[in-house]
Amino acid sequence: MRSHAVLAVALTLVFSALVSYDCLAQEEQEPAVVSALSGKVPSDAVVLFDGTGLSEWAGAEGGPVSWTVADGAMTVNKGAIVSRKEFGDMQLHLEFCTPSPPRGEGQDRGNSGVYIQRNYEVQILDSYDSKTYVDGMCGAIYKISPPLVNACRPPGAWQVYDIVFRAPQLDSQGEVIKKAVVTVLHNGVLVQDHVEVVPTGGRTGTAETARGSIFLQDHNHPVKFRNIWVREL
Ligand code: MG
Fold first, then answer.
1. CA distance linking residue 191 with residue 204, whole number of Å
2. What ranges do the domains of the chain cover?
3. CATH of 46-232, one of 2.60.120.560, 1.10.600.10, 2.40.128.110, 2.40.70.10
4. pLDDT digits 0-9 by tens, 175-194
5. Neighbour tally for 133: CB within 10 Å
6. How far is the centre of ligand 1, averaged over its atoms, from the C-alpha of 137 (Å)?
7. Which residues surround ligand 1, an ion (CB under 5 A)?
8. Model pTM?
9. Ligand 1 center to residue 141 CA distance, Å?
């Protein structure tokens, strides 16, 4: 009995020492400094579009980029585009503007989309005063998850997506062992909260990967984009 008691005390002491060492180690790990001035791109971000050129983008089918650039914005034109760089876990910021005056209804009104890793579509749509199926409206993960609320601004107004993406985890055979997870703020309002995703329908069968490009959809509507940047996590 006595030796058990001694052993218990010894183990308790070792455990507390380990815990305090762990706390100390965490305290000593200083977070990196990121300059994040109001209205500016964070200092550790990769800028994909600053309003001046399309050098970070390629045609989604391998051809040239036909999108037009004017007044600090780029406009959808003749085909989807993809980022030349590939990303895994990331924070993605982009701003978009649906056409004004609006034309069409439902899915045929200000439609584009951000496909993370070319696979998971965060829908862009004019859902300000126009109805469609809820998992296809603006702020939806297309056909997977409706937005928690409708935070749309009117057509012609600039809007913001801030997206946190956790890439899928794959085993050595390329099988997904942990699904990708997406969180979306639309105009600063939480619309997707840590949602597990699979590739958007029509892309089923597309291999999921640890890293991939950002794909911006051409849905035949002149949606505009500006201020696109990524912070790798
Ligand atoms: Mg779309």
1. 24
2. 1-30, 46-232
3. 2.60.120.560
4. 999 999 999 999 999 999 99
5. 11
6. 9
7. 111, 113, 217
8. 0.87
9. 10
